[in-house]
Amino acid sequence: MKGLQSFVIAHFKYAVRVPWGAVTSFSVSVGYSVVMTLQIFFTYKITQTPFPDLPFELFLLCFFMNQVIFFIGLACGVGNIGRFCRTLINGGIDMMLLRPVPMAFYMFAQRIRVDHITMLGIYVILFLYQSIAIGLDFPRILMLSLYCFISGILYFLLVVFYNGIGCLLRNVDNIRRVATSADELLQNRPPEIFPRPVQFFFTFVFPMMFAGSYIFDLVRNRESLFIWVILIFWLAVISFLNWGLWHHIFKNYESIG
User: What is the dihedral of CA 53, 59, 65, 66, to 10 degrees?
Assistant: First the structure.
């Protein structure tokens, strides 16, 4: 809890001390959002996604939800975990251990990225606007928002977990490349285009489909109790595995000295 508090305070202090940096970050984030939305638009127009129950308006809503989930993870600091793991492998966290700052701060807030918070806010607004524009009622919007939040936390925990595995294997970069490739494969693609074995693997073994593909089932009213149960199940399991994994890593840490 102290690590989370330090992380939030660090973000706000940066915005106050460097206001022009925050303004520039916001401008770049807006530009990035516009470019990404146009990219999705032209990709859809070129490929003409062959699903009669997935018009462009719903496809765009899925894209906004996917970005909300992705930037929840980045806003929580997953962009720093790889750097921290490399420092840990090299035995270079001795000085961190001597400082009166929680280790969670070093894991997730070594490098403050205000633009990630900004991007999250922008895509939340775009998601809400698109939901209202296509006529979704409030309970439906609330349900989709809840799914984005839970999936975002699961995505965050998965990134922390596979970086921890990389620490144990002393090969963080390659593990991250494999996981990132899987994430890019599943983003903005409905689950039915994947073979059954692929769907099974990314649902019951490495549950990355919840951060991407299953969004399409939700917006097309295909969601079931099964999706929610498995999502909550994996949230609990990955949380427990992370606790055990990182406890083992810190317990067996060896410094360069």
Answer: 110
pTM of the model: 0.79
Which residue, among 232, 106, 239, has the nearest Cα to 160 in the 3D structure?
Answer: 239
Distances (CA, A) of 151 to 65, 68, 117, 188, 190: 10, 10, 17, 15, 16
E strands of the chain, at which residues?
none
Q: To the nearest whole number, what is the mean pLDDT of the chain?
A: 78
Written as one string, the DSSP assignment of 22-81 is HHHHHHHHHHHHHHHHHHHHHHHHHH--S-TT--HHHHHHHHHHHHHHHHHHHHTTHHHH
Which is nearest to 157 in space by CA: 229, 234, 67? 234
- Report how far residue 185's alpha carbon sits from residue 233's, in angstroms, rounded to the nearest whole number: 23
Closest CA to 126 of 173, 57, 222: 57
Is the Cβ–Cβ distance between 160 and 243 less than 8 Å?
A: no
Q: How many CB atoms lie within 10 A of CB 18?
A: 14
Residue spans of the domains in the chain: they are 2-251
pLDDT tens per residue across span 175-202? 888 888 888 778 777 888 888 888 888 8
Give the pLDDT confidence of 138-155 residue by residue, as tens digits. Answer: 999 999 999 999 999 999
Phi and psi at 91, nearest 5°, equal: 70, 35
